[in-house]
Design brief:
Blueprint lengths: L1 H32 L3 H13 L7 H17 L7 H12 L16 H24 L3 H11 L18 H14 L3 H13 L6 H12 L3 H14 L4 H13 L3 H14 L4 H13 L3 H14 L4 H24 L3 H28 L4 H13 L3 H13 L2
Length: 391
């Protein structure tokens, strides 16, 4: 009899404790309904920290909603609110043996998914804010948390806001790069390369890190890979050429391009690339020849038109400067005439470049100055206006 009585007492105590613990979830739901987020947080945290309710479906259901509301409306209550909301929403989407979400008694799957997407948007916006505030580690943490949500965006709600795997990886790179975390930065860039991210800058960024680490051969490999994917990107071409110049290996690159031209004489990009190297090395005659050959093959090539126009323009400026520096009047007149001839050669190529790409600022700046030197002030003002209208 005594043993039976003790058992009854123990069972009563356990039942009471379980009721009290479950009551925390009920109190949390009531506080949520009344928008009393301080109390809602207090009760749901107690339920979360109690063993008997720490993994209860009903607890996760209300925890997901409470922390999302806190993240959206009172983030000062908990700096990690959006992370807790995300974790809870993902728990709510777990399914039973019949593939039904575990919280279906309280919330539909559609509503849980909608809340999860909200978490994704909040994480993304927080990541940008943290980056702008210089909190790069926190920014990276926010971006990382979105990866679990992306596969659930079956209706492209995040995608419509430009929140995609590619965007997150690229933005994450900028955060890790600010942290000087080369290992993480290279990992992120490689993932972007592997998924064929449509931005040539990723190859330039990768090469910059490798150069910093003394891996110049690898840097050149990535730049070459970038040019295979983005043949006409001037940034990649210039970065590769500059690296060869820094390494004192321009003759090697010119040789490689010469071999490639011998195998494919109709490829204007090869002539353009070699012309750019000659141009940067000050070998004007060979640069001019290659640019002209490139334009014979493709008169509508923006790069060759712009570079040849710029080459002539710079020649004219140099000659003009010599004229202004002399005190010999006859030499002054002679040099000015020479400059005018070269400026006249530059004009059609720069105008063609402008017609091919009306928003290129460098072309507009060159034309503005060139028209002014030719006393065509109306056209110069027109270029000035177009420059001011650029975004």
């Amino acid at each position: 009899m005594i043993k039976k009585g003790l058992l009854t007492v123990v069972l009563l105590v356990i039942t009471t404790l379980t009721f009290a613990q479950s009551h925390n979830v009920v109190n949390a739901s009531i506080a949520l309904r009344n928008e009393e987020y301080v109390d809602a947080k207090k009760y749901i945290d107690e339920a979360y920290e109690t063993e008997s309710t720490s993994n209860d479906a009903k607890m996760w259901n209300y925890r997901s909603q409470i922390y999302l509301e806190i993240a959206l409306k009172q983030p000062d209550l908990d700096a990690d609110a959006v992370f807790k909301a995300t974790e809870a929403h993902l728990k709510c989407l777990q399914t039973d043996k019949k593939d039904r979400v575990v919280v279906r008694r309280w919330t539909t799957k559609e509503d849980v998914l909608a809340g999860t997407i909200q978490c994704g948007y909040k994480l993304f916006n927080n990541a940008i804010e943290e980056y702008n505030a210089g909190n790069y580690k926190s920014s990276l943490k926010h971006y990382d948390a979105i990866f679990e949500i992306i596969p659930l965006d079956t209706e492209d709600q995040l995608k419509r806001g430009n929140i995609t795997t590619e965007t997150i990886l690229y933005n994450s790179f900028f955060s890790s790069n600010k942290m000087k975390n080369n290992s993480k930065s290279k990992e992120l860039l490689q993932k972007l390369i592997d998924i064929n991210f449509n931005d040539p800058a990723i190859f330039v960024h990768m090469s910059s890190i490798l150069i910093e680490e003394g891996e110049t051969d690898k840097a050149l490999e990535y730049l070459a890979l970038g040019r295979e994917n983005f043949e006409e990107d001037q940034g990649l071409i210039n970065t590769e050429i500059n690296l060869y110049i820094q390494l004192g290996r321009t003759s090697e690159l010119i040789g490689k391009l010469g071999e490639a031209i011998a195998l494919d004489e109709g490829n204007e990009l090869l002539y353009f690339n070699r012309g750019t190297i000659y141009d940067q090395e000050g070998d004007i005659d060979n640069a001019e020849k290659d640019y002209l050959t490139a334009l014979e093959l493709n008169p509508s090539a923006f790069g060759a038109n712009y570079n040849l126009g710029a080459l002539y323009f710079n020649q004219g400026v140099a000659t003009k400067n010599k004229a202004n520096a002399t005190t010999d009047n006859s030499l002054y007149k002679k040099l000015n005439k020479e400059a005018d001839v070269v400026f006249a050669k530059a004009l059609p190529y720069l105008e063609t470049a402008h017609n091919l790409n009306s928003e290129d600022k460098n072309t507009l700046l060159s034309l503005k100055q060139l028209y002014y030197l030719n006393n065509n002030y109306a056209k110069s003002e027109e270029m000035k206006k177009l420059i001011s209208e650029l975004k």
